[in-house]
Design brief:
323 residues, 5-stranded mixed β-sheet, 2 domains
């Protein structure tokens, strides 16, 4: 590793595209048990500076609040390999750390908090690349926009960046206690020297949890290496070259599949396609009933002689756009 920053029914023959998961839903095509994720396409996440307040406390915990007061924030993060069609990265350590409602970090002598451990912790990604944290909405301190630090480590990979919030969201949250006892933040996203020109791709979009707190999720695209597909032994000379999740301006979610073959095959993906030898790309629509997150694409090729070949690829399906 390095540090850079199917849908349908199988026919009796041809290429059948099926997406399935641990528990079937939407007609048995998708896994309903996977949490929703945010990213609409598979892209690298911009790296940002670690800053002076990282302490490798090695605190394996999901709830990092301890006694800190503030608006509850349930944060879900997914780690995906952006070089491998958004295959989830399993077994990665994800640390987060941020200041409290008063703008202070724990275990920092300059803040008078040495030996304290609040608002720090890590979790390890599961088979879908997911970790979850319970924390509070961060406060602010002079010279910086409101943010959460995070670090992803897996084998030789170490990727560090920051998550931000819109200025409007900060204004809304900071009208409430305990934030309301402090002045208005002195640094907007635009004026923050770390937010930069790519900070917009690091924005969280918290939603109300209906109980006074917030939920948010974020997908981290890293360069994690490794293969994203498994193929059975077969003499059939066809392959799934790539899968990419897309979303149209109208909010419709699609998958763009690219197939290469040295022989003629037929393809069934919600509609039958006859493909000559060569390279072909086509799109299939993801049903609106399908939840977002990591799902498994199972692609079965069948040629005229009856040879079959199955490829599995984990892909990241975007959340449905809220209209």
């Amino acid at each position: 590793m390095n540090r850079r920053a199917a849908i349908g029914a199988a026919g009796a023959s041809g290429v059948a595209f099926l997406i399935g998961g641990i528990r079937p839903s939407a007609g048995g095509l998708f896994d309903e048990g996977v949490e929703q994720a945010v990213a609409a396409t598979c892209v690298m996440t911009p790296a940002k500076t670690e800053g002076p307040y990282f302490v490798d406390e090695k605190l394996n915990r999901s709830d990092i609040r301890e006694t800190q007061d503030g608006g509850k924030l349930a944060l879900t993060m997914y780690v995906f390999d952006a070089d491998n069609d958004c295959a989830p990265v399993q077994g990665a350590t994800v640390d987060i750390w941020h200041c409290n409602a008063a703008g202070l970090y724990s275990d920092e002598s300059a803040n008078g908090t040495s030996g304290q451990k609040w608002l720090r912790g890590y979790q390890t990604t599961d088979a879908t690349g997911k970790v979850t944290f319970t924390t509070i909405y961060p406060g602010w301190y002079s010279g910086r926009a409101v943010h959460i630090h995070f670090k992803v480590r897996h084998d030789s990979l170490e990727f560090t960046s920051q998550l931000f919030f819109t200025d409007d969201m900060n204004t809304t949250v900071f009208k409430k206690a305990p934030y309301s006892s402090r002045p208005t933040p002195d640094t907007t996203d635009e004026r923050d020297n770390i937010y930069g020109t790519d900070g917009g791709s690091l924005l969280l979009q918290p939603q109300s949890d209906g109980a006074g707190g917030y939920t948010a999720d974020f997908s981290v695209g890293v360069s994690a290496g490794g293969s994203g597909s498994t193929t059975s032994d077969s003499s059939l000379a066809a392959a799934l070259s790539s899968v990419k999740a897309l979303r149209t301006s109208a909010g419709t979610r699609k998958l763009r599949l690219t197939v290469t073959s040295s022989e003629s095959v037929s393809a069934v993906a919600r509609a039958k396609r006859s493909l000559a030898a060569g390279k072909h790309s086509f799109k299939v629509t993801i049903p609106s009933s399908v939840a977002a997150g990591a799902v498994t694409l199972r692609l079965t090729f069948t040629d005229a002689a009856g040879n079959t070949k199955t490829v599995k690829r984990t892909v990241h399906v975007a959340r449905r756009r809220q209209l």
